[in-house]
Each structure stands twice: as C-alpha cells, then as structure tokens.
Write a structure and sequence with these properties.
The structure is a homodimer of 432-residue chains. Chain A has helices at 4-11, 27-39, 58-61, 64-75, 81-89, 101-109, 132-135, 139-155, 160-181, 200-214, 224-230, 241-251, 255-272, 287-292, 311-324, 342-352, 364-367, 410-419, and strands spanning 44-51, 116-120, 123-131, 189-191, 218-221, 233-234, 279-280, 303-306, 333-336, 357-362, 384-391, 394-395. Chain A is of the alpha/beta class and 432 residues long. In chain A, a hairpin with a 2-residue loop joins strand 11 and strand 12 (394-395). In chain A, helix 4 crosses helix 8 (139-155), helix 9 runs parallel beside helix 10 and helix 12 (241-251) runs antiparallel to helix 13 (255-272).
Amino acid sequence: MVDISTRVYNHNWKIDPIVRSVLDNDFYKLLMAQTIFRRNINTVVKFSLINRTQDVPLANMIDESVLREQLDHIRTLSLSRGESTWLRGNTFYGERRMFDPEFINWLENFRFPEYHLERKGDQYELTFEGPWIETMMWEVPALAVIMELRSRAVLMNMDKFALQVFYARAMTRVWEKIQRLSKLPDLSIADFGTRRRHSFLWQDWCVQAMNEGLQNRFLGTSNCLIALRREVEAIGTNAHELPMVYAALGSAESDEQLAAAPYRVLADWQKDYDGNLRIILPDTYGTKSFLDNAPHWLASWTGIRIDSGDPVASGEAAIAWWKRHEQKPEDKLLIFSDGLDVEEIERLHTHFHGRIRVGFGWGTLLTNDFRDLQSDRRLEPISLVCKVVSADGHPTVKLSDNPLKAVGPEAEIERYKRVFKVGEQQVRDVIV
Amino acid sequence: MVDISTRVYNHNWKIDPIVRSVLDNDFYKLLMAQTIFRRNINTVVKFSLINRTQDVPLANMIDESVLREQLDHIRTLSLSRGESTWLRGNTFYGERRMFDPEFINWLENFRFPEYHLERKGDQYELTFEGPWIETMMWEVPALAVIMELRSRAVLMNMDKFALQVFYARAMTRVWEKIQRLSKLPDLSIADFGTRRRHSFLWQDWCVQAMNEGLQNRFLGTSNCLIALRREVEAIGTNAHELPMVYAALGSAESDEQLAAAPYRVLADWQKDYDGNLRIILPDTYGTKSFLDNAPHWLASWTGIRIDSGDPVASGEAAIAWWKRHEQKPEDKLLIFSDGLDVEEIERLHTHFHGRIRVGFGWGTLLTNDFRDLQSDRRLEPISLVCKVVSADGHPTVKLSDNPLKAVGPEAEIERYKRVFKVGEQQVRDVIV
C-alpha cells in the first residue's frame, strides 16, 4: 500500500530541510553557550566558514539560492516543547539539571541570527557576526548544510538502483569498521560526526549501527537531536572557541592577560561542570607550553582531549604531566578526536590501553566516509571549518599543534607564538 | 508517518506466503503445459523433490507445519483476472497469442493438486502424483518454498541492523557482478533463478538490478509474475521432463520407441512454437549420442541449451554438428544454463563470442549467492531438484552429461545407456 498522505506531503515541500531542529547541533555548543550565558552574554564575535580544501569548488557545486533556502530555514527554527523537556528532564553525564532554567528559557527564545553569504570565486564566504552566544550556534548547522548540499549535488543524477547499491556499500563499510572496533577490549567511543556528516539521515543510521554493533562500548553521540531520538547519551565537552575568545579579549589588555586566558577558561568551566566534563583541550596555543605553564589545580581534572599534532606524543606528554603533578594516569582519561579512522583508533588503543582510560570521538570518517564509492572523487572528505575570527573587534588566533591548522592574522600569530613560547611544530596532513 | 493500515494488515497475517500467484512460476512450465494440454492431457506422472546436498538437514531447519502451511497456501491460488489478461494480451518472444484461449481457460480453472509430504530422517520426502499437466506446475513453487523457508530459518535471529547490512552486502555483491558483466560486448543474459532463489523479494530485486545495470543486454526473467510486474520479457524454452516422460512411455513399448522419444518431443514442440523457442535441450540421454542420431530437420532449429557436462566441449560439439548439417553457426544460438557465475559467463563468452550467438540463463548464483555473508555456512547453495520419476507407472530416467546428475532406477539407467549408446562420461561437481 502506498501511504498517499506521506507522498502528497512530500511533493508539497518547498525544500527538503537539512537542519530541522535547534537541537540538531553538537552538545558541547549547549555546554559552552551556558557558560557564555553566565559570563559573556554581551561579547560580540564573528564566525567565518572556511573550506581548507581549496581545490573543491563548493560554489560551483552548490547553488547559492539553494544554500540560502537552507540557511533561511534554520532561521525559522525554535526549540520545541519536547526538546525543552528533554533538556530539563534528561540526565547528562550522570547529572540531572545540567542546564539552568534561565539558560533553557534563553534557548527557548533563541532564533538563529543573520548570516552573511557571498560568493568569492569558486568558494562561498559565509560569516556570522553578533552576540557570541547566538552566532556560535551557527557553526555546526552551517557546516552540516554545506556538507549535505554537496552530497545531494553529487548524488542528484544517480539512478534508483545505483543509489541503493551506493548506500548498501557505504553501510557495509561502516558495519565492517564497527565489527573491527568491536574486537578492541574496553573500547569507549562516541560519534563526533555532526559537522561534516554526509547527511542527517546517514549520521542517524551510523549512530544506530554503532549502538547495535558496539552496545555499551558506544558512549553516545555529540548530536543532541539524535541523542534525544535514539535515547543514547549526548556527548561533548568544550572547544577552541572558548580560549580563542578569552585570549582575544585578554590580548587587548596585555601579554600577561593573553598568556593567562586559556587557564581562565578552565577556571570558569570548573565552576559550571565537573566529573567527565572536566576535559582539558590543551592544543589551542601548543600543548607543550600549555602543560608546562598549567596551574597545579588543573591536574586534578578528569582528562585531556588530543585534537591535533602527533597523538601518541601528545598522549605521552599528558601522562608525563600528570605524573609530575602526582596524579595516577590510570584514573585519567585521554580523548582522541583528530581525523580518526579504524586503523588509527586501533593503533592508539593498543598504545595506551591498560595505562590510562582512553576515549575516541570519531567524526568525519564515521559519518562521511564515501571514499571510492563513486567513480569520481567528488565525495572525498573535505576540511571545512567554521571558526571564530574576532571577539569585540580583536582578531582571534589558534595555533594548534599542527601549523596547517593555525588560524589568525600573521602578526597576531607571531605574537601568540612568542607569548605562548611555541617552538618548532611538526606539519601533519589535514584530511578532515 | 507510520502507515497504520499496513502495520495492522501485516500483524493479522496467519502466514507470510512465499508463493502468492500461479504465475510465480517459470515461463517454460506454461509453454510445456500447453504442449502437454494438446497431446498428453491424460498422462499421469509422479514428481519427487530431492535434496542432492544430503549434509544439509532440511527437516531440522524447517518446521513441517510451517512447510505445510506454505504448500497449502499455494493450493488456494488461482489465476487472477489481470494475470489472465497478461497471458492473453502480452507479446512473448515477439508473438502475440502464444497461448490458446482453450489453454488459458484451463489455466484459469487450474488449482494446485494434492501433495504428499513425509519426514524421512533429516530430509523431507515431497511428492506430487496425478495428471502430468497439474503435477508439473508444482516443481518450481515447491522448490522456491523450501529454499525460502531455509533462508527465513537462518535469518530469523538476526538483529535489525545486522539484517540490513547483510542485505546491503548481498546487494553490493550482485551489483558488482552486474558491473563486471556489463563490460562484456553483446552480452545476452536472462534470470533463470526462480526455483532456488533466496526469496521472492530478493529475486525481484535482482531482476530490477539486472534491468537497470545491463539494460538491453538483459533479456528478461524466467519468472512470469516478475516479468508481468516489472514489464520485462518472460524467458524460457523446455526442460528434461518432456523427453523423460516421452521416453518412459516409449520404453514400455520397445527400445526403438525409447530411442526415438527425444526426437518425438521436438517434432511435437515444432508444431507449437517457432523462432527463438526452438531450442534443443540435448543432454537428457547424452549430448553426443543425441546429436549423432538427430534427424536432419532438427539442424534448422535456432539453438541448443547446454545444461550439463563440459560447456565448452558441448558448445563445440554443437557447432561441429551444425556445420555437418550445412548450417551457419553464426546464425545459431547457444544457451548456457548450468551452474553459472560471473567467471564462467566471462569464460564462455570469451570462448564463443563472435563465432555464434550466445545466451546465458543465470540461476542460483544470481538469485541466491549469500556465500560467506553469514558466519556459519547455512546459506550456502544447495542442490535441490524436483524431477519427474514415473509416467503412467513406468520409471523415468535422466542420464545427462554428468553422471552425478543421473536420475532413475539402476537397471533402467543401464538400459537407457545401452539404447542411447552413452559411453564414458566425465564426472563434474554439482554445486547447484
């Protein structure tokens, strides 16, 4: 039987929206938004979307009007009653009432602010300027919209059966990855793949496959909407934007304020969250310098997230740092989240297993690995990012442990390198 | 939106029927039935279903009551109005009115006759006794029911996602086979996979995939119902049961009548069908002896189907035979239908392409290749056949070009070998 009403409903769509909920966003955005809500409600920033894979001409693949329709649709969204109930009633990281009623009230009234879209050559310039707490909500949905529009553009001319086999192959690939991972003892892994996913439906499928294939070794997903619908844990901690904005604000005052900024972020964070949410992201201005200068109290935090540089070296540096501060590494947690795929997960797991708790935040190569599934290379992963570029008029800077991931004006980068005493850095390919 | 009515309809099913139409049967059964209708309406035969893969204990895998329910359901079927219209109005092999109104009237009133089912050790004994024209209709549906019940039994305990990936893998495999075949110039291939299919839905999917992937190189399907629904050609010619029954009846009279039986079949067939339906199936009592003793008029027929023995040697023997009778091989057609898979199709195509027209009837390894897709081997292909074993009380015999495929009482086999002057035969593995 054909469900006529569904068919008729579908052919009345003006667009097929990619983002259909305020919660189709990463969980750490809400955690960070709450901390911004409490302390930096008036900070004005600018976010900018950049395609680091310049040889993929996104503006030739995606029609501007189609992109505008999707972004405009996002601006119509607001938190639904059930979504609000979930935020108020659900347990996050073992805790009820993770979010203040005041913050949830704010989120209920939140609407995505304006965007600025302009074609520049074969790329789009997409920026968001305004209150930090509002513009920061755009990062993940904006990336997801562009990624999915690219997927749709590539798949548009495929026949029905070719499409079915295309997804059959992709499912087989994901499932084989999961089967391989299921052999790792004490694995602990989460989906971090919202921003560069192939599509919403595909991420949703991947999460369900992880959940069935890995069971309790699958921690959950960074995607709030999927966590809500599939009744799995919402996962996430904090991101570079916090130290970047704190540093930009501090840099306006003095080198000392700049140097102290990354630790001020964590001092604030510590007032808001505890337990497994106390995860240090040390690489914004170089992991080595960050750890060398870190205050003693920070060593009591639960873990460190390794998001750039050589992950084994960084993990070892973290272990050595904890030992210097009389902490037991076996009680600590290392979270890896940089360009992971199965081989790398296996390698890191083998290296660290038994010495320290290890977690993996698996992103693009979980939710968007369609390499070789199509005759041309138009579905290869691309490195698309959306970063904060200024705060209250001051440019932001990120150095990271890989110079190819550095962001900011050249002169500022040099100043930050001096202030944070960043020496030689190793260049590593950026895939995603 | 959930289609509530479909869900409610589904959970009211007593059984999920495997065969839902009289036309879910091979096309050559109808062609043969019409020729039987015209000449042998009173012949009484017995068909018997045999699992040649004795180490697969079908009776342990399939519940007897479930098997009975499926067979009983088949006995409730009758030709629908639309199906009858299709038989009356459709073009088969380029011809309208392939079937007489009298025959279609008979088919409209046809109901599947009684069956006899008995468990014997780990196997079932399933036989059909009665008028040839009625019992012969059981062969394909009976095989398909047992094959699909086996599939269901094996898949019953799989989780939803494991099942989805299982079929994703199988689809990928079929599609890769089709992509390989699409590289063969002037390929001509049909689906002959009804009897040993994994399931009806799977065969239906395979036919659609072949149709999309090979386009006009895909001739059609032997399955009438799928041909009707998917609007592709219904394909088929004739089977061993015709010479087997004619021979059994002739053997009762004299060796001469026995020796002449295979040619009498074709003399009758020639009155009913022409063009591409004039395909000789020469291996019932040995291809060599058949061709050596064939009347000159038979060489004018369109082609020969190679269904046992060494297919290259048999094809070469056919070409040599046509040449001896002053026929041009390039106008002739060789149809291969014995245990084909992609490698074998490529090999035969390469060997014969350009010298003679070649067609392939691809069966079990199209519609039931789930080898290695499951951890145990319970979905490996099995050699399940349903053969006529007696006609008007006389045992039937099949020798074929492979002694492992011989059927009949030992003494009768010896007599047939003598009468048909069958010498040494080469043993070949029977996979399907």
